[in-house]
Amino acid sequence: MERFSRERKIYFFEEFILTDHHFPYLEFHSFAGTAVKAVRPRIPDRWSEAQRQAGLVGLVDELLELLGPKPPILWFYTPMMFPLARHVDAAAVVYDCMDELANFRFASPMLADLERELLHRADVVFTGGHSLYEAKRLLHDNIYPFPSSVDVCHFQSARKLCVTPPEQAQIPRPILGFCGVIDERLDLELTAALARQRPEWSIVFIGPEAKIRTEDLPRAPNIHYLGQKDYLSLPAYFSGWDVALMPFARNDATRFISPTKTPEYLAAGLPVVSTPITDVVRQYGDMRGVYFASDAPSLVCACEEALQLEPKRGEWLNAVDERLATLSWDDTHRRMSRLVEDVVEPAVRVPLPPVARKTPRSSWRRRRFDYVIVGAGFAGAVLAERLANESGQRVLVCDRRPHIGGNAYDFYNESGILVHKYGPHIFHTNSEAIFDYLSRFTAWRPYEAANNAELKKAAEEHLSETKDQIKKLEQVFKSIGKTASGEKCDAIEGLIKEADGVMKEAEGTALDAGLLAACQAVEHYEIVRYGALREWAKDLGHDEAHKLLSEILDQEKATNNKLTNLAVTSINKTSTRSRAA
Questions:
Q1: 179 lies in which domain range?
Q2: Could you tell me the pTM of the whole model?
Q3: Run of H or E residues at 378
C-alpha cells in the first residue's frame, strides 16, 4: 500500500474499537514515512450488533464525504468488511484474498456467503498464492495469483549484522527460530517433540499469540518466547539465528497458505526447515537450503542437515538470491497496479507514462487485447508469457481446458501430493537458457532410465502370460457358443507386438520398456474388461466361462502388482538428479 500511496491517497479502514463515548467517530493515524493513513472507527460499547453495523456504514459515508465526489477504489482484504461499503458507487472493487479465512478458527459463519457476494461484485481478484488461486480460479474471470514478495535489501542486512538484540544474545546457540503469528496454524506438538529430542538446541518464537491459550504453548528450558517485534528490528533477530523454522500444522487453516516468511528467511541468509506446505514445496522445493519434514524424526534430521550449511554466507545463497530477485515488492506493485488500472473507470485513472502503457485500455468489461493466443500448451504459454512480461503486451490466452501447460499440467492436491493429471512427462534439453527459463515456473523431478534385469524379466513374463490369456479368452467365448470380437483380438495382438518390439530394442532402457509393457497390459485389461465379462458369465450361469475369467483376472492383478512394485523399487534405487520433469 505504501507504493500505491505514491499515486493515490490510501486510507486503511481498520476493524472497530469500542469506546465509552456515546457517539461513533473516526480516528486518523499516519504511518511514518508513508502517505498511508489508518482510519480506526470507534463505536459505543453499549450499542447492539445492528447499531454497530449501521454506525460503521455511516462512518464509511462520512469518510467518503471528506474525500470528495470522486468514486473511490474499494480494496478488500476480508469479505467481512464488504457490508460496510456494498452500497458505495466505486470506480473499481478489488478483492485481495490472502488466506482462506473461512477455514480459520472462530471464523464468522457469514464469511462464506459474504465472499460469494464480494466475488460477484469484484472487478479483479488477487490471491496470496497458487494453491488459493487454484481453489478460486473458477469463481471469477479476472483472478491472478501473487505469492509472497520480499523486501530483499531489508532482510539481507541480517547477513552483515554482528550484534543481536540483548534479550536474544543470552540464549545459547544454535538457535532455531520462528517469526509470525502463534496460532492454530502451528504444530505445537511437533515443536515440543523437537525441543525434547534436541535439548541442546534453542528454539525461539517471535510474534503475537492469537486464538490460542498461553497455557497451551509448549514449555521447555530450550523454548523461548520473545513476543512481537517491530518489522524494522527483525533482521537483527534473524542475524542471531542458525536455522529458520516453519512448523505449520497440516489442517484446514494451512491448506492454502503461502507464508511470507519463506523469502524473508532466505533473504536473511537462513536455511529453512518447514513442514510440507503445498505452496512452499511448489515454489522452493527444488532449492538447496530449504528442507521439509512431516514428523519429529524427519524434522530433527532436516534441522541437522540445515545446520551443516553456513548461515548468511556460502555458495548455496547464490541460487537463493537469483530466485529472490524475481520476488520484489516493486515488481508485485507494478503488476497489481496495471491490473487495477485496467478495471478502473476511465475518469479516475491515474495517468501512466507512455513506456508503462503503450495503448489506452478500456475497463475489464470492454477489454482490448494486443494478442490472442489459442492453445495454452508449452508453445502458447511461453509465447504469452514472453509477450506480456518482455513486451508489455496485453495477451488473451484461450484454451478449452481451465489451465495452461497442456498435457504437461500438474498440480498439488489438498494433501500436498503432486498430481500429473494427464500422466507424467519427461523433458530433455541441452540448452542452459531453456532450462533456466523453465526453472522459473516448475520444480524438476529426478529421473533416469534404469537397466533392471529383474524388471525386464517380469515384463517379458507378463507379455507371455498375456498371449496365453488370449487363448484362454477364446475358450471362454467357445464355452458360451460365441465368437470373440475380431476387433478386440486384433487390438490385443497389436499391443503385444508393439510391446514385444520395444522389449527387443530395450537394451539399457529396460525400465522404460517395462513400464510401457505394464501400461499396455492395463490397456489390454481395459479392452477385454475381464471383470465385467466375469460377472456377466456368472449372471448367465456360464460356470466354465466364469472360472476361466476368474483365473485370468487373478493372474492379471497379481502380475500388475508385481510389475508396479518392481518399477517403484527400480526408480527409488537408480534415480539420480537430471534435467527431467
A1: 152-324
A2: 0.58
A3: helix 378-391
Question: What is the spatial distance between Cα 570 and Cα 456, in angstroms, rounded to a whole number?
Answer: 11
In this structure, what CATH number is given to the domain that contains residue 509? 1.20.1260.10
For residues 76 and 564, which has the higher predicted lDDT (pLDDT)? Answer: 76
Instruction: Please report the pLDDT score of residue 462 as a whole number.
Output: 67
Q: Cα–Cα–Cα angle for 576, 577, 579, nearest 5°? A: 130
- Contact predicate 563/521, CB 8 Å: yes
- Euclidean distance between CA atoms 321 and 167, whole angstroms: 30
CA–CA separation, 530 and 475 (whole Å): 14
With bands split at pLDDT 50, 70 and 90, how would you rate the model's confidence at 294? Answer: confident
- Say whether 323 sits in a helix, a strand or coil: helix
**Per-residue cell: 334:** 507494478
For the residues 406-431, what does the mean pLDDT come to? 77
* pLDDT band, very low/low/confident/very high, at 497 (cuts 50, 70, 90): low
Higher-confidence residue of 98 and 527: namely 98
Q: In CATH, what number is assigned to the domain containing residue 427?
A: 3.40.50.720
- CA distances 446 to 286, 348, 382, 478, Å, are 10, 52, 23, 49
The single-letter code of the amino acid at 361 is R
Domain presence at residue 237? yes
For residues 561 and 522, state if they share a domain: yes
Which range is most confident: 99-103, 158-162, 165-169, 577-581? 165-169
Contact present, 511 and 451 (Cβ < 8 Å): yes
Angle, helix 486-505 to helix 453-479, in steps of 10 degrees: 170
**Strands of 202-206's sheet, edge to edge?**
223-225, 202-206, 175-179, 243-246, 272-274, 290-292
**Separation CA 531–CA 533 (nearest Å):** 5
Tell me what pLDDT residue 571 has: 53
* Residue 190 maps to a domain: yes
List the beta strands (DSSP E) in 202-327. 202-206, 223-225, 243-246, 272-274, 290-292
- Cell numbers 478488500 correspond to 76
Residues 421 and 472 in one domain: no
Q: Place 494 in a pLDDT band, splitting at 50, 70 and 90.
A: low
On whether residue 59 sits in a domain, the answer given is: yes
The Cα 458–Cα 463 span in angstroms is 9
pLDDT mean over 173-201:
92
Residues 6+ apart with CB under 8 A from 453: 510
C-alpha cell of residue 244: 529458520
Residue at 411 is within a domain: yes
DSSP alpha helix (H) spans, 242-346: 261-267, 278-284, 296-308, 316-324, 329-343
Residue 186 CA to residue 198 CA, distance in Å, equals 19
Task: Output the pLDDT for position 194.
Answer: 94
| pLDDT per residue as tens digits for the range 17-48 | 899 988 998 898 888 777 888 889 999 999 99
Q: How far apart are CA 562 and CA 555, in angstroms?
A: 11
DSSP state of 13: E
Q: Residue 346 burial by CB count (10 A; 0-12/13-18/19+): exposed, middle or buried?
A: exposed
